[in-house]
């Protein structure tokens, strides 16, 4: 059972699917869900150690945790994989659509391949997994199901990846703005089936995605954040757990920022 101040979040009897759940923010959410008692299915693309990561979580928490290889941009494979998880570990009760990629290049150098690389995962991949989960719940007349989509504070602002001249990750930022709007649309359409959909939007988090940033840029960014530092991945987990739990039974169609105050600055 995961405890926060004042109340605890218990996900026992739940089965949560987490895309990109083997690394970074997704891994922190996988670990927190397992600690809260959920059975956890991790979807990954190509990491070699995903099975070992899942075994370690299962060993540490005593719950069931398994890794499934699936490229979220492959619509048919996503449907098959969610059905497989549902029959092997389910019924699935929650999804964290978290897998995401970025291309950092000046806008004048971006190509169609770069566009497809980013949008096929960050937008199509998110939609594929969300729809596959919703379809399962609607077909099974399962009243309920919570979907948490990892967007980004860059859905709202142009985050700066350069120090002295603008470098803004145009495709990444715009893909996150797309997802922020997608959340509202599917939340409205699926609410009648008892399905809640929300976005968790992190600020800068110390993961592989940000480890490639130039140290000068990291320092510049960190000192310009109200909390003065990047987040640790585990600092994203409480919001995901809350949105997956029954405590969030009246929360849908919203975007929740966990960004160290970046958006107010
Ligand atoms: P990481 O780069 O650390 O990990 C990315 C994860 O996504 C990996 O598990 C990877 O699997 C998986 N993945 C990538 N492409 C696919 C695919 N096609 N199919 C299935 N899985 C895939 O990411 P972060 O933890 O940093 O980010 C997680 C989410 O949070 C992303 O959506 C990101 O955009 C968002 N975010 C991150 C921020 C940050 O500062 N780090 C800030 C704001 C938002 P594999 O290991 O197999 O490659």
Automatic annotation (TrEMBL):
Keywords: NADP, Oxidoreductase. It comes from the Eukaryota. GO terms for molecular function: oxidoreductase activity, acting on NAD(P)H, oxygen as acceptor; oxidoreductase activity, acting on the CH-OH group of donors, NAD or NADP as acceptor. Belongs to the short-chain dehydrogenases/reductases (SDR) family. This is NADP-dependent mannitol dehydrogenase. The lineage of its organism: Eukaryota, Fungi, Dikarya, Basidiomycota, Agaricomycotina.
């Amino acid at each position: 059972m995961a405890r926060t101040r004042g109340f605890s979040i218990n996900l026992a009897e739940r089965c949560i699917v987490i895309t990109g759940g083997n690394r970074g923010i997704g891994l922190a959410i996988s670990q927190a869900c397992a600690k809260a008692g959920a059975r956890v299915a991790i979807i990954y693309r190509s990491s070699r150690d995903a099975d070992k990561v899942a075994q370690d979580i299962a060993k540490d928490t005593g719950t069931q945790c398994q890794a499934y290889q699936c490229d979220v941009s492959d619509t048919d494979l996503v449907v098959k994989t969610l059905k497989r998880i549902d029959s092997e570990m389910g019924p699935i009760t929650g999804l964290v659509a978290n897998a995401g990629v970025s291309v950092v290049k000046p806008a004048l150098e971006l190509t169609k391949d770069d566009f497809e690389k980013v949008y096929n995962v960050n937008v199509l991949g998110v939609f594929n997994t969300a729809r596959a989960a919703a379809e399962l719940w609607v077909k099974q007349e399962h009243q309920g199901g919570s979907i948490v989509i990892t967007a980004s504070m860059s859905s709202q602002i142009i985050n700066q990846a350069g120090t002295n001249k603008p470098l803004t990750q145009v495709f990444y930022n715009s893909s996150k703005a797309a997802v922020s709007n997608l959340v509202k649309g599917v939340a409205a359409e699926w609410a009648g089936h008892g399905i809640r959909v929300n976005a968790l939007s992190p600020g800068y988090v110390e993961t592989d995605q940000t480890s490639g940033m130039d140290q000068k840029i990291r320092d510049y960014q960190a000192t310009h954040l109200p909390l003065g530092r990047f987040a640790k991945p585990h600092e994203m987990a409480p919001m995901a757990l809350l949105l997956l739990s029954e405590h969030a039974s009246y929360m849908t169609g919203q975007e929740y920022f966990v960004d160290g105050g970046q958006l107010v600055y």
